[in-house]
Design goal:
This protein has 399 residues and is of the alpha+beta class. The chain is built from 9 helices and 19 strands. The chain folds into 2 domains: 166 residues, Alpha-D-Glucose-1,6-Bisphosphate, Chain A, domain 4 (2-Layer Sandwich); 212 residues, Dihydrofolate Reductase, subunit A.
């Protein structure tokens, strides 16, 4: 694979305010094009080295928008807005990119996907409103270097997609019109003795006798501060934030147990309880609540709607996927719900945070899951906060 960039002179009227760069990627253009079509793809490669993204909203269609934040490696956040102006699969994408919908300094980019034997040449031509804005982007923001890094990251991600397609071709039944969505768990904390929540959960103590000890690692992070957790400043950007920030990217629905939604047990005494999170919960997606006592859907501000269903894990997942579109499904907890989905072998990616405390009682995550490690590739990352982040990635069945 090779990358080239150019800002040289030509007879074209926009030459002095444009940047053109290209890269040859070892994959068919249909697959390269697909990497632009979903948040769960874009979040894995978009941006220069060291950057990550948090998506607020995403709609990949002509006239649709991508509202997101780019997080720089130095902790700086950059508000970004993209409007997709033209989409011609798998040949061309035209977009307008600025800081907001009405940004007068927004620049236009056109991406062409050209077949090159078994490979694809992607050509990105960006035109700025003025020469001064183009020069500022190059000199102050290193736009050419950043663009080349972004295309290199795209190439690496497409190579990963190619490998995953080969490995999973016999494992998953694709959704109509796309790849099978993943089932993921993020930021679920357990004690050293395996408890995901303490005993005696109630309104005043949602984590039971564990208090907030299981989530103290998360409370200082930027992601959890943005959810409304108290604290000074914008939040930390270290190891814990790197893991915490992945929870929403590419997710179109959450499945949670009733105990996560409410402190009540048995039939609903009334339907006034609307969750722990206020009128604008942090999910901004549909949420499927598993309960033996269904009730009408509960629509909240910010795009969250709770659906209360009585279903086994596989049936609940089918309902959730119908709500998620092409995006992934997150299993939000608690411990019983995650364990049910693990027992049914329905989870593809699992992020567990081992917290150095002993609870002694409560709801254990791992009971009945002997041999679970044989299904997953497992990595461990220790954090200065004292926790250990364990990530489980499903192995191919023939591995």
């Amino acid at each position: 694979m090779a990358a080239t960039s150019s800002g040289g002179e030509s007879q074209h009227a926009t030459t002095d305010r444009e940047i053109v760069m290209s890269r040859v990627i070892s994959a068919p253009r249909e697959l390269v094009f697909e990497a632009f079509t979903q948040v769960r793809h874009l979040s894995r490669w978009w941006g220069p080295d060291g950057f990550s993204t948090t998506t607020r909203s995403f709609e990949f269609r002509a006239g649709g928008n991508w509202d997101f934040v780019m997080h720089g490696p130095d902790g700086t956040d950059y508000q970004e807005w993209i409007t997709w102006r033209e989409i011609a699969p798998p040949e061309r994408i035209a977009l307008l990119h600025g800081e907001s919908r009405e940004d007068p300094n927004a620049f236009e980019s056109v991406l062409a996907f050209e077949p090159d034997g078994d490979e694809t040449r992607i050509v990105m031509r960006t035109v700025f409103p003025t020469k001064e804005l183009r020069d500022e982007a190059v000199q102050k923001y290193h736009a050419i270097e950043g663009g080349e890094q972004t295309l290199r990251n795209l190439a690496a991600y497409v190579a990963e997609l190619t490998r995953n397609d080969t490995e999973r071709s016999s494992d998953a039944e694709p959704q109509p019109g796309g790849r099978m969505s993943l089932v993921r768990v993020h930021n679920f904390s357990v004690s050293l003795d395996g408890f995901g929540v303490g005993e005696e959960q109630r309104l005043e103590a949602p984590f039971g006798h564990a208090g907030h000890r299981l989530v103290e690692w998360a409370m200082p992070t930027r992601t959890f501060r943005q959810m409304g957790l108290p604290g000074e400043g914008a939040g930390s950007v270290g190891v814990d934030e790197a893991f915490a920030s992945r929870w929403a990217t590419g997710v179109g629905v959450e499945i949670m147990g009733r105990n996560k939604f409410a402190p009540q047990r048995g039939p609903w005494a009334d339907e006034e309880w609307r969750g722990w999170w206020g009128d604008n919960p942090p999910f901004h997606t549909p949420v499927v609540v598993l309960t033996h006592h269904p009730r009408p859907p509960l629509e909240m501000d910010g795009g969250t709607t709770f659906y209360f269903v009585d279903a086994e894990a596989a049936d609940a997942l089918e309902q959730a996927r119908s709500l998620a579109g092409d995006l992934d499904v997150r299993i939000g907890g608690g411990a019983t719900t995650i364990r049910q989905f693990l027992q049914a072998d329905l989870i593809d990616e699992l992020h567990i945070v081992v917290v150095p405390i002993l609870l002694g009682r409560g709801e254990r995550l791992w009971d009945g899951l002997e041999g679970l490690e044989q299904r997953f590739d497992i990595e461990a990352v220790s954090s200065p906060s004292g926790v250990i982040h364990l990530t489980f990635s499903r192995r191919p069945q023939d591995a």
